[in-house]
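Box 3.1 A note on notation
Throughout this textbook, protein chains are presented in two layers. The first layer is the amino acid sequence; the second is a C-alpha cell string describing backbone geometry. Keep the layers aligned when reading.
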Amino acid sequence: MNPDPQAPPAVTHSLWTIARIHNTLTGPTLTRRFLLDLMHAPEHQVMNVFRAWQRVAASIEASAQQAQESRSDATNGTSPGHPPTAATD
C-alpha cells in the first residue's frame, strides 16, 4: 500500500504514550515513581495520573530543548533569543 503523497505526515512526536513519558523522565527514581503511580491508581484516576506525568515529561522536554538551543547559540557566538551580530571591519 502506497501512502497518499497529498496526506500530511503522521505526527508521532507530539503523541504522549506511557513509553514516551517513561523515556523522557530523567533517572530511575522518576521512572519508578511514574510506573508505581500508574499501577496503583484506582481506575477512575488513571488518566489524571497519566496527565500529571505528561506535564512533568513535557516540562523536562522543554527544558532539554532550551538547554540544547543555549548550547547551540553559545557555539555559534550568539546570545539565546538574539540574532548573531555582524562583524565590522
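The two ends are 59 Å apart (CA to CA). Residues 73 and 82 are 9 Å apart (CA to CA).
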